[in-house]
Design goal:
With 528 residues, the chain is an alpha+beta fold. The protein is built from 21 helices and 18 strands. The longest helix is centred in the last third of the chain and has 27 residues, at 381-407.
Length: 528
């Protein structure tokens, strides 16, 4: 068998080390065997793979181009044999032990760091050795004894430890329910500076403004006007003009803080920029770096842990729930592979529309979908949810026509949609293998019930939702209630109705909607 080392594999395959590690963890590629490479004096140990894995990598790239997710790609590749490393006939000195390979954290980096050449040890590290090695180096967020916090892209605190509350802000930040109340500049002005000219507070203000300037225009400061007043706004605008933007990566600086007892303390500040926000960690110069460097280098691991611990926040939002009509019957009619193909096509078809209108995927049972449109991220969140629903309906018509032609059947594929607006607590629910975003409260339940109520691909919204938009915006929407008059259906535009007035108590489905019987709703006919 021919072999290729990880360095050449990444170069020829056009992938990063992080991508390679991810493919190994997902079982798409075999775990490497490790040896001292010949002709690479600057590399102590490196992982080796069967050269055939290049073909697998090309296949993964092609499936990605077709719009398949990594989970779908994994399912496809599991149906065919994946190239396996046969160490017994290869020229490798140090195969990874089975015990090590079975560990969930055993990545290429783990393997290359822990493999021991035979002339030194005779065998590779055991699973217990690997665990011990990992535990010695790993420092978790819970174990941090120094101030640390994460601010999101709106510069609101999403996660904070007790040390940061005590030392930096001198306030219970985690107990603030509204996201805007946790704005970092509002917290600094109200709890740290308090209108004084404290130099330490000014340094803090300047530090955070560098990262704000890298992501936002100066006019964005106006959004926090209410909480800080005209004097505070002017102060922030001055800071914005004076600082240089801090772009990407790990930024380090020293800052002097005024402690609660009146003394001053110098801190070494580490700031890591992520797509989701900026993570700040404050270390006193005399504190040990043991474990901290390892923690800061694990960028992906940090942000995953932070997102799992994101503070629940009271947020205004719209929630859209969509379900495939008669999915049970369609599932019964289609062969299993074709039904899954249909569901995957629906998801791929709809995903770009949700992204276009800033929808955030949420937790939902079954083969339906739930997306949230958050006011914090999007001032037009109500109209975007309506535009999104209208576009989904048109895409579903096209997909239905394609399947009617493909299957030569008479089924009409319909995506029934319910939308509601509300204010609920949002948070993250850890779930393997991903983190799910969810809201707890009646707003989501009402949208789900409206989706059940809708038929034939219709879109139903609450009166409360349309009350959140302006008269000009409402004029862009055709909505109303359908009535039967002398055997003919007529549309009464610009009207609402209660669920109980559209389903009589003797109707067999009435019990299903009894809990929303008094909800006032209307049907969205179209968007002008």
């Amino acid at each position: 068998m021919d072999w290729i080392d990880s360095i050449d594999l990444m170069k020829r395959g056009g992938i990063s080390r992080a991508t390679l590690n991810n493919y190994i963890r997902m079982g798409l590629l075999p775990r490497p065997s490790v040896k001292r490479p010949e002709g690479r004096s600057n590399v102590r140990r490196v992982g080796f793979f069967p050269v055939e894995v290049l073909t697998t990598i090309d296949g993964i790239k092609n499936l990605k181009k077709e719009g398949m997710s990594m989970q779908e790609i994994r399912s496809v590749l599991q149906e065919r044999p994946i190239v396996a490393a046969k160490n017994e006939k290869g020229p490798l000195e140090t195969p990874i032990s089975a015990a090590t390979a079975d560990l969930p954290f055993a990545s290429l980096a783990d393997a290359e760091a822990l493999a021991v050449p035979r002339e030194n040890a005779g065998t590779c590290a055991s699973a217990e050795d690997v665990r011990k090695h990992r535990d010695e180096l790993q420092l978790t967020l819970q174990e941090l004894t120094m101030p640390a916090y994460l601010v999101n892209n709106n510069f609101e605190v999403d996660w904070i430890n007790q040390e940061a509350e005590d030392v930096i802000f001198r306030a219970g930040v985690a107990r603030i329910q509204e996201a805007e109340g946790r704005n970092i500049f509002r917290l600094l002005l109200q709890n740290v500076l308090r209108g004084t000219g404290d130099q330490a507070g000014e340094e803090l203000l300047s530090l955070h403004m560098q990262f704000f300037k890298a992501r936002h225009e100066k006019t964005s400061l106006d959004k926090i006007w209410e909480g800080i007043g005209s004097a505070g706004l002017a102060r922030l605008q001055t800071q914005y003009d004076q600082v240089d933007a801090a772009h990407g990566g790990l930024q380090e600086s020293y800052i002097s803080l005024l402690l609660a007892d009146g003394t001053k303390q110098v801190y070494h500040v580490h700031a890591i920029v992520y797509r989701e926000g900026v993570f700040f960690l404050y270390k006193q110069p005399e504190q040990s770096m043991e474990g901290i460097a390892q923690l800061l280098s694990s960028r992906g691991k940090i942000i995953q842990e932070l997102l799992k611990k994101r503070l629940p926040t009271l947020v205004s939002f719209c929630v859209l729930v969509a379900d495939l009509q008669d999915s049970v019957r369609i599932c019964a009619e289609l062969p299993p592979d074709e039904y899954f193909e249909l569901i995957n096509q629906i998801w791929r078809c709809m995903e770009s529309t949700f992204k276009k209108y800033y929808g955030t995927y949420g937790k939902h049972a079954g083969d339906g979908m739930v997306y949230y449109f958050l006011k914090d991220n999007d001032a037009d969140y109500v109209m975007n949810s309506i535009h999104c629903a209208a576009e989904l309906r048109e895409k579903m018509k096209e997909l239905s026509n394609a399947w009617r032609e493909k299957k030569r059947w008479f089924n009409e594929l319909c995506l029934n949609i319910g939308i509601n607006e509300g204010q609920e607590f949002f948070g993250m629910i850890p779930a393997a293998p991903a983190i799910e975003f969810t809201a707890l409260g009646d707003s989501v339940n009402c949208a789900g019930r409206l989706s059940d109520f809708a038929r034939g691909g219709s879109i139903w919204v609450t009166k409360n939702l349309l009350n959140r938009i302006t008269a000009d915006q409402r004029a862009e929407i055709r909505f109303g209630i359908r009535r039967i008059d002398q055997g003919a259906e007529i549309l009464l535009e610009n009207l609402f109705a209660r669920i109980m007035d559209m389903i009589k108590p003797d109707h067999p489905k009435y019990p299903k909607f009894e809990d929303i019987a008094t909800l006032t709703v209307t049907e969205i006919i179209g968007v002008r």
